[in-house]
Structure formats: structure tokens, C-alpha cells
Amino acid sequence: MVNANRFTLIFSALIALAFMAGTSVQAATSRIKDIVAIEGIRENQLIGYGLVVGLNGTGDTLRNAPYTEQSLTAMLERLGVNAKGTTMRPENIAAVMVTANLPAFSRQGTRIDVSVSSMGDASNLSGGTLIATPLMGADGEVYAVAQGAVATAGFAAAGEAGSVVQGVPTNGRIANGGIVEREIPFELRDMSSLKLSLHNPDLTTARRIATAINGYLQNDIARSLDPATVLLTRPIGYRLSMVDLLTDIEKLSVQPENKARVIIDERTGIIVMGNEVRINSVAIAQGNLVIRISEQPQVSQPGAFSQGGQTEVVQRSAVDVEETGTEHIAVLPPSVTLQELVDGLNSLKIGPRDMIAILQALKAAGAMQAELQVM
Question: From which residue to which does the signal peptide run (predicted)?
């Protein structure tokens, strides 16, 4: 009952928030820079393989992670130490994968954050130091080098008879641990045209973006190619660069068009509805069948002076069947606003779990004019 009440409160709060947002966002606008991505201005993913040293006995077991031993041997040879043929049993070294995102227009010497994740059976990377690791892009070229002390958000502690783990101690991060060594060539200033990609593709929104740009510059330089793309062409005779053009138009306000959508998280019972959700007139009856089974074992003992009798446990089961739910059929009228839809569903006096089932049934019956997404 406590969990149901909590879910009901969460649901009511989210629906109220969605309704208040829907009534005010109807005429609200967003800047173009907040709803589009500019072609060429993007991050690039980097990856590398390295070693973390200095662990307090929580590193890889070389017998279970032979690649760690091979990497250690190769590293020592590069440093002039001949370690071939020797038996090594260090417990303070771990093989890791190093990942990072290279921001757009990063110049040589710029520092970036890197993430470090254990590959072997190391139990904790806390206190370790990542040895210089090249980070490569999808083309196989090295774009950055990472090194530094690893900071983890979790910890692990163990004793003779028990252990405790908080968070993920085999995953860490090095703030500003990577240095950019190679730049990605991209000249935005001299481009004559580029594309704007909508975060949420929509035909109406794409057309409104093009209309806002053309109206501001008094020139037909923008046109929507599809629901996700707006083509921007620098006008002939425009004395400023493409960077200046983007600076002028990215602050323009546009009213995005939102799809009618219902988001359901069945694990937590959370439901989020958009302001454009509509349903046709429909009748709904809801009921649950609850079966309770309780076990009451009894002890059966042999009679006095009986020969060969044994004491046994006899199982006794009690089965109770109860049907709960609405005692009548509720009629939901055609909804004009989100509030009317919520009021109609709340009139059934049901919890979030049953409401999720009703929404799925409404969609299956074709009565809900909205997209239904189940997480």
C-alpha cells in the first residue's frame, strides 16, 4: 500500500507538471541553437588500451589476465628492462580501456577528461595511476594521449568473513587527463552552405526554422529538406563569414511542434503525457482478480502407546479469491485538453499500474491519438 501511494503521488505530480507545462509551452518558444545541431560541430570518440599501476593489491591476476603480463613485459622492454622469461606476480597493475570524447575544434595542447575501465579481474582501481596511453579515433590515428591519477566514485572493502562494495570501483575518471596531440581539420568560416539537424525531427518545426531565418535576413537562404534537416546557404554578397551568420541566426526564437506522446516506465509505474494527447469517446471497465494462498502446517503425532508411529508435519493450505476494481463502466468523453483526460482516468480511482494497462488497451483499441512508448 505504501508503494502504491508513492507511485500515485509521483504520477499525480508528473501529470500536474506536464499539464502546467503544456498550458504555458503552447505559446513558448526556443532558440534555434537549443533545438538543432550544426553540421560539422560535433564530438569524436577516442579509445585506447593502457595500464594502471600503483594499486594496493587490487590489480589483475596475471594467471587470469595474460594480456596484462604481455603488456607489462612490452612496456618494460620499451623502457630498457629485459623481463622476458621471468615469472612476475605483481598485484598492483591492471589492464584498462581508456575512452574520451574529443570536442569540436579542439586545438593541440587542449586538455580533455578521460574514463578508465578495468578489463581483467582487478577489484579496485582506486589510488592507481594510468601510464601514458595513446587515444585513437575511428580512422586509427592518434589524437590524444592520456595519463594521470585515477579517481573512482566507489570503493570496496573485504574482511575474512564478509565484504562490501559501494558503487563501481573498477571504473574511474581522470579530470583533464588527456592532452590533444592532433587537430581534426574543419574550416567552418569559409563554408558556403551547411545543414542544421533537428534534435527532434518534425516537418512543422523545420519549416518554422527556415521561415524565421529567411524573415530575419530578408533573404531566401534557408529551406527545409526533410523533417530533420534545414539547408542554410550563405547569401551572395554577404560580407561576413559563416561563423558570423550562425551567430546571428542561432539566437532566433522558434516555436517547436511536439508530437502527441505517452511515455510509460513499467518498472516504476511512472507515466508522462504530452499536452497534445487526445482520445476518442470510449467506455472502460477495470477489475483485478486477487488470489491469496496461506500455508498453515500442522503437526500430526501418533497416539499413546502406538507401535511404529511417527510424528509428521501435515501441510494445510487456505486459498482466498477476491475480485477488486470498479463496479461500473466509466465513460471517458472525447478529451480536448490533457487535464480532461487525466480527470477521466482519475475518475476510475485506480493506481498507476492499472492506469498503464488502460493506456495500453486504449492504444490497442485505436482510441488514443498519440504515440505510446514503453521504457
Answer: 1-27
**Residue 112 half-sphere exposure, CB side, CA atoms within 13 Å?**
28
Q: Is the dihedral of CA 244, 248, 251, 256 positive or negative?
A: negative
- Write the pLDDT tens digit of every residue in 304-356: 666 666 777 666 666 565 655 555 555 656 655 556 666 666 766 667 777 77
**Contact by Cβ (8 Å): 202, 36:** no
CB under 8 Å to 261, separation ≥6 — which residues?
A: 273, 274, 276, 277, 370, 371, 372, 373
Phi, psi (rounded to 5 degrees) for 290: -110, 125
- Nearest-Å Rg of the Cα atoms of the chain is 32
- C-alpha distances (whole Å) from 8 to each of 72, 213, 331 are 56, 45, 22
109: left (phi over 0), alpha (psi -120 to 50) or beta: left
Q: Are residues 31 and 247 in contact, defined by beta-carbon separation less than 8 angstroms?
A: no
Burial of residue 57 (CB within 10 Å: 0-12, 13-18, 19+) is: exposed
Instruction: Provide the grid cell at 292.
Output: 491469496
CA 218, distance to chain mean position in Å, is 41
Decide: 259 and 369 in contact? Cβ < 8 Å: no
CA 181, distance to chain mean position in Å, is 31
Q: One-letter amino acid identity for 90?
A: P
Pairing of strands 151-152, 111-118: unpaired
Q: What is the pLDDT of residues 81-124, one digit of tens each?
A: 877 766 676 788 999 999 999 998 899 999 999 999 999 888 88
Nearest to 156, CA basis, from 140, 171, 146, 142: 171
User: CA-CA distance, 241 to 228, in Å (whole number)?
Assistant: 25
Q: b/e string for 270-302 if b means 16 or more Cβ within 10 A?
A: bbbbbbebbbeebebebeeeeeeeeeeeeeeee
d(CA 91, CA 61): 7
Q: Which amino acid is at 222?
A: A
- Calculate the dihedral angle through the C-alpha atoms of 114, 115, 120, 125, rounding to the nearest 10 degrees: 100
